[in-house]
Amino acid sequence: MAIQVSFGGQDRREKQSFAVGIDLGTTNSLVAYVGPDGQPHVISGPDGAMVPSVIAFDAAGQVESVGHPANSALLVHPERTIYSVKRMMGRSAAEIVHELGMLPFQVHTAQGSAAVRIEVAGQKLTPPELSAHVLRELKRRAEVFLGHAVEKAVVTVPAYFNDAQRQATKDAGRLAGLDVLRIVNEPTAAALAYGLDKKPEGRIVVYDLGGGTFDVSILRMHEGLTEVLATGGDTHLGGDDFDRLLVGVVAAQVAAVGISVQGDAEKLQRLRKACIDLKIALSDAEQATVQAELVAGQRIELSFARADFETLIAPLVEKTLEPCRRALRDAGLVAAELDEVLLVGGSTRIPLVRRRVQELFGKAPRGDIDPDQVVALGAAVQADIMTTGRRDMLLLDVTPLSLGMETVGDVVVKIINRNSAIPASATEEFTTSVDNQTGVVVHVLQGDRELVKDCRSLAKFVIPIEPLPAGLARVAVTFLIDANGILHVTAKDVRTGREKTIEVKPSYGLTDDEVVRMLEDAFDHAEEDLTYRMFLDAKGEADSILEATRRALAGPAGTRLDPEEREEIEGAIAGLNAAIRTQQADPVRKAQRRLNDATWRLAELSLAEALNTAVHDPQLAHVLAQAPDPAAVKPDHHGQRIK
Ligand code: ADP
Ligand code: MG
């Protein structure tokens, strides 16, 4: 055995003390706990269980309020009221450039390091510092309710969150005075809450439509282990968009009675609030009426029919279905193979959403779950499992991120893939790149990115080897994650049998200052990587569009195109491929737009085709879904060269 690295940041020796579960949402956050009855419950404050993830500051830069009162402050002081912090957590400047236009507050991306800072009331704060205010409020509520200190928590994050985003979430917890025992995927938490009475088994799709984001995940639960088979979604689609559409229509109605909200931020906010009430009422009634006071002293009644609301939002609801189909394909499944459909997020209370999801998956969603609470409840169950060991249930443990090793070219070779159930073990064999090397560097990395610089370095050591011509030495590297989540790395010179041992201290015991410094460090080098990262991001997107286009062209929709349309698309594909070779983000984005423009009819035809297929021909849908995805084929790394 060689290296001991703490894995997942959790210390199982601390089983005695109490922990809560927290759903730290983009729009709303909740805290839950497992009571003496062994059941999870959400903790309510005087204004309910949901705490809007909104922080209001006063002019002096002090936090004035968090939650509902802060939400109301948005009306009065939008310039010092912060929301949507989750979108910025753990992101570099390059990653959030496209978000900036949508957020009303000042976001700084320079400052010597590329750490994102939000300017509010004369201070520049990092996303974890801001999120910490929401967590602190939840912690306080839990303490008031439970009557004792709460110092530990399990916090949920979207399944697609990367290491930096997870780490930022942990840092936020630490800044709020919470020891984050575990970061759990939101869909996993949902499944865990649902699986309370029986051991969860089978394939589950979790459809999560919240305020600003849509996430779909397909999970496989087996013998207490949860594996994320596929994720997808749309980071800019949710209840806020429904609100915006409704506001548009209702604004026209009130304009007809002589009230203009155009250009009047306060009236617009009041109207928005009324429309949200209307929307929520329409989830329960065919027709709803709400009172609004847009002009002081002048109350007006707003009425809307559910059918009209549904017509309004139908295209957006349809937009959520494509990521679902893609997730099914990525998971290699057809709808009929799913065992459960779980709905998460406030917007899944909308009857049209439920209907369309049910039609797509051919199965009624579970009705016994509160979509607002299920994630927090699952987090509480996980917290309970980790602190009391009370539940007769295996720990849900998979490796959250891939573990790999550096090879020549600063590239990471994955040895244990993310989502592997633990205990897990894998061995890869490597060889040398230079003649007569007397040692090789074993650099252990965590993360799912391709390049060393994008992954977290866990350990680095040298193993002496017998000098041989390049390519002849054989070094076997074994990664083993034991049942306690501890990673053991062994490197062995196959010819001599020699092994190397090293011990690495896990990064425990950080002070707040260190956390902040670490945050800075993590982003210090981001600036120099900025352009390349931007290119990689653009390329990633371009690759999937190219792949989707290729598939669509080869499919039945492709045969229905005119020759000119096809020619145009092929030209755009060639253009995009050429742009990718420039290794620059801008040309790729530009060429991608051209391809998008050229393919809109193809997309339409494919969508019609897919809908037809899914609805009328389960047999064919099965065949389509079984088509191998070239991206899913794991490359063979044997014989990779290392330094
Ligand atoms: P997030 O996970 O993004 O924090 P939530 O799951 O709390 O968000 O969802 C918030 C969204 O759900 C908001 O847009 C809110 O208006 C919407 N919502 C809440 N309740 C209902 C309802 N009964 N009908 C329709 N939409 C609702
Ligand atoms: Mg949520």
What is the CATH first-level class name of the largest domain? Answer: Alpha Beta
- Identify the CATH homologous superfamily of the largest domain: ATPase, nucleotide binding domain
The number of strands is 27
Question: Mean pLDDT, nearest integer?
Answer: 81
Give the distance, in angstroms, between the N- and C-terminal Cα atoms.
22 Å
* Spans where pLDDT lies below 50 across 5 or more residues: 1-16, 392-396, 503-512, 617-639
| Beta fraction | 15-25%
Task: Kindly describe this structure.
Strands 1, 2, 3, 4, 11 and 12 form a 6-stranded mixed sheet that branches. A 5-stranded mixed sheet has the order 26-25-24-21-27, with no helix packed on it. It is globular. It has 3 domains: 4-238 and 313-396, ATPase, nucleotide binding domain (Nucleotidyltransferase, domain 5), CATH 3.30.420.40; 239-312, Actin, Chain A, domain 4 (Alpha-Beta Complex); 401-509 and 615-643, Substrate Binding Domain Of DNAk, Chain A, domain 1. A hairpin with an 8-residue loop joins strand 8 (106-108) and strand 9 (117-120). It contains 17 helices and 27 strands. The protein is 39% helix and 24% strand. The site of magnesium ion has 5 residues, from loops. The site of adenosine-5'-diphosphate has 21 residues, from helix 6 and helix 7.
Q: What are the key terms here?
A:
about 650 residues; alpha+beta; Nucleotidyltransferase, domain 5; Actin, Chain A, domain 4; Substrate Binding Domain Of DNAk, Chain A, domain 1; 3 domains; six-stranded mixed β-sheet; five-stranded mixed β-sheet; 17 helices; about 25% strand; globular; disordered N terminus; binds adenosine-5'-diphosphate; binds magnesium ion
